[in-house]
Structures are given as C-alpha cells and as structure tokens.
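Write out this protein's structure.
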Amino acid sequence: MTASQPTQPGLINWIKLITLGIIWGASFMAVSVALEGMGPMSVAAIRIVIGALSVLALIRAMGIALPDPRSRDGRIIWAAAFGMGLFSNALPFTLLSWGQTYVASGFAGVCMAIVPLFVLPLSHVFVPEERMTLRRTLGFSVGFAGVLVLIGLDAFASAGSNFESLARIACLGASLCYAIGAIITRLCPQVNMLSLSAAALICGAAMIVPVALWQEGMPSLPAITPLLAILYLGIFPTAVAQILLVQVARSAGPSFLATVNYQVPVWSVIFGAVLLSEAVPPQLFAALALILGGLLLSRQPRRVAA
C-alpha cells in the first residue's frame, strides 16, 4: 500500500501549520515551569505518556482501532509508528533536554529552524513529489535568514559550560531527528491519521519511559504550577501537535510541515513579551517579514499547463 499523494497546501493546512507554530512556541515557557518540579528526562517522558493516553482515549471514544499488527500492512504501519515515535518524540526530546543543559537557549532555537534545511534534501531523495527546486531552496534560505535575524549572532556565543561542543551536536541531532520523523510520517502507508498518531506516541512512550526511570528514578509529585505545565505539555505540544503534524505531513508534504520551525522562535518571543513582560527585540518585524517572505516564496503554487 502506498502513501497518499500530497496536495498543494490549502487554507486548512495553513491554519494547522500556524496552530502548530503557536502551540510549540508557547511550549518553551511550559518546559521552563515544568523543570522546576522534576528533571528534564522525566518531563519528556511524562509529556509523551500523557500525549499517548490522550490520543488513545480519543480514538477509543471514536471507535477507531489501532493498526492491526497481524496483517502485513499493519506491521509496516507499526514499523513506521516506531520510527515516528523514535525520531519525532523520544530521541529529539532526549537530545534537547540534555543539550539545553549546556548551551544557550538561543542556539537550540536556531537548531529548530534548521529542520526545514534538513528536510529539503531528504525529501528530494525519498519523496519523489517533493523535489528540490531553485524557488524552494531560495524560500527556505530566506526563511532561515529571518530566524537568524530574530535570534541574533549571540545565539552562537559560548555559554562557557562543560560538554558544550557535544551539546551543540545533540541540538543539531534533534533537528535531524525531526526531519527524519517528517519523512517517515509522509512515507507511511495509508492509515487513519488518529490511529497512526496514537501508535507513534505509544511507541515513543515505550522507548523513553525506561530511560527516564534509569536516569532520574521515579519522580515525585510536583507542585501545582509545574504539574499544570506538564499537563499542558502532554496535551497540546505533544498530543494535539502529533495529530496535526501527521495530518499536515501526509496531506501537504514534509517540506511544508518543516516550515513550522521558522515560526516557533517568533511565537516564543511574542509569548515572552505578552505573558512574561520580556522586551520585544527591535529586529522582530524585519525577521517576521523575511520568514513570511520565505514561506510564500517556497510555497508558490505550480503552474498548470494549458
């Protein structure tokens, strides 16, 4: 069974993409609050478990079954779900949690913006209808330049911590993981998208929970504020986001989905200014213009021959 052909992104896919950007942009604040109550590995594991349970409850209520592992297609789908759980959840969450212990947060933000640049050549090789073109390459480059303008060169300044070089590699590795996860999602055989989302989160939870218990032990119940932050992370940036990213990757293609990473730093700055009274960087609007320009340039509809 082959994957469905992606369509030219329509209004619904654009709305979903912007929603993903908002959800993930707000997650930085939630992670900071959650880390006040438990370790980074425990936060990552619990949010994936909450996400898995949330989507599983949803599909049960809707009468949707998980992929049947007894059939050939079911085994292929579960293999894809394992890859998605590893590369879109467990591994990047782990790499970022460890990496951000040693590097400046701005560098991690830049790394997330590199995801589309990883997706571009991977899609060219593995997804025939996502070939690299000059316009698409220019669009991705302009968008990435906008992220660099927003975050500034200070993101690359040394934090003066041990293991910093390895931590930078870990953050870059997380970006590559997200790119691989998007390709796997696109290439998965035709299946109910909610069922695929649940399967991927179940696989991610099964992988990360033992590692978190091994590294940090059984976490104690945190205070109410970190607890609410963890619940938010599990429901929105994990469960809801997993559903949206599966839908967007399979209907509009991994390259379109990857451009959400250009939005995340912008929304993070906006939420910080509105909710935490942080200063708005003067370059915000110039960066936003570059990011939006890059998105429009890379997604210009193809001309249809008469």
